[in-house]
Amino acid sequence: MQKKLTITVDERVYEGLHKVIGRRYISQFIESLVRPHVIGADLEEAYRAMAEDKTREAEALEWAEATFGDAVSDAR
């Protein structure tokens, strides 16, 4: 659910938002900037999404196996 919020900004900031971001995209722009600072990351969901990415998982496994081989040879 969305809520309406009224904020006050400097006139130059207001004009810049309209000019650079565009009138119809200001709310989305501000929310994308603010969201990471006020909503905690759902790490479990993020890890689940990463695990479902089969290409990424295959690359990660390949990298891990290659790194493991380097670590074993460095220990000797």
Summary tags:
76 residues, mainly alpha, 74% helix, elongated
Outline the structure in words:
The protein is mainly α and 76 residues long. The chain folds into two domains: 1-40, no CATH class; 43-75. The protein is 74% helix and 0% strand. The longest helix has 22 residues, at 54-75. The model has no long low-confidence stretch (mean pLDDT 87).
Per DSSP E runs of 2 or more residues, the count of β-strands stands at 0
Order of helices and strands: HHHH
Number of discrete domains: 2
Largest sheet descriptor: none
Query: How far apart, in Å, are the first and last alpha carbons?
Result: 59 Å
Name the shape in a single word: elongated
Strand content: under 5%
Q: Total helix count?
A: 4
- Based on CA atoms alone, the radius of gyration comes out at 22 Å
Which percent bin holds the helix content?
over 70%
Q: Oligomeric form of this entry?
A: single chain
The low-confidence runs, each spanning 5 or more residues with pLDDT under 50, are none
The overall average pLDDT, rounded, is 87
Summarize the structure.
The chain is mainly α. Helix content is 74%, strand content 0%.
Write the layout of secondary structure elements.
Layout: H1 11-21, H2 26-38, H3 43-52, H4 54-75
